[in-house]
Amino acid sequence: MTLVPVSADTLAKLQPGGRVLNYTCPMPEHSDVTLDKPGKCPKRGMTLIPVMEPPPAPEAAKHEHQH
Q: Is the pTM of this model over 0.70?
């Protein structure tokens, strides 16, 4: 894996914060696995990853769609 430096503004867009909705398996074949707390996938033991609440739409995008 290659790590790429990013600015604080870019990082804020990539990691918007917000609420964790649930935790799921990173394997697409196991997308049906959802738990309410961190842990391991019961199918293969992989570490579950958080699914975050989507960030609010930017103000500019809201105004563009109101034509």
A: no
